[in-house]
Amino acid sequence: MAALPEPVVRLTAALNKLPGIGPRSAERLAVHLVQEERGKVAALAEAITTARETISLCNACGALTERQPCSICADPRRTSAVVCVVEQPTDVLNVEKSNAFDGKYHVLGGRISPLNGIGPEDLRIHELEKRVKTEGITELILALGTDVEGEATCHYLADRFTSETVRVSRIAHGLPAGSGLEYADEMTLRHALEGRRHMS
Question: Helices 23-35 and 6-16: crossing angle, nearest 10°?
Fold first, then answer.
């Protein structure tokens, strides 16, 4: 059986590192790309490079953005007193698709995971404390996954932030146990946000 040329093997290996792309899919994509018109491949490469160079994390909330602050943080029509706390920047996009939330966001950048060496100090919790003190936040909605690490992070945040002035709630039903926001559809997220429960 003929082996793939070395450049295709290297391209396959690079594509295989992308999330959701297995070895067979990576090989199919690589073979497709080397047979595609040069102009289309160049346009794809330029789009990838431009996106990587122009997109950063919002200095305020941690969401993906082209400008500082992001469009959500800069929107005066959004409720600034209610902040939805999520794990990753992509979770902001998932919640936004539900059209059930008109407040602002805070991206933790992960979750507490002692087995992986991730503690509270490794997350954007200090930044959240600053925002609570300076932005008049009255409610934090914890929209993290329902697995063990997500639950542990939620309980830590509830203990740390619940006070007379700040209410901490947790999105409720609708998310399967052990899963994250990336697996929930828009309607499920809407119900979860509307049915949130207080954690104190």
Answer: 130
Q: Could you say which of 3.40.1010.20, 3.40.1360.10, 3.10.350.10, 3.30.505.50 is the CATH number of the domain covering 64-198?
A: 3.40.1360.10
Q: How big is the chain, counted in residues?
A: 200
Other CB atoms within 10 A of residue 83 CB: 23
Q: Is residue 30 pLDDT above 70, yes or no?
A: yes
Q: Which residue has the tokens 């199919």?
A: 28
Tens-place pLDDT, residues 70-112: 999 999 999 999 999 999 999 999 999 989 899 999 999 999 9
Indicate the domain borders of the chain: 6-54, 64-198
State yes or no: pLDDT of 174 exceeds 60. no
Collect all residues with Cβ–Cβ distance below 8 Å to 184 and sequence separation of at least 6. 94, 174, 175, 192
Phi and psi at 102, nearest 5°, equal: -120, 15
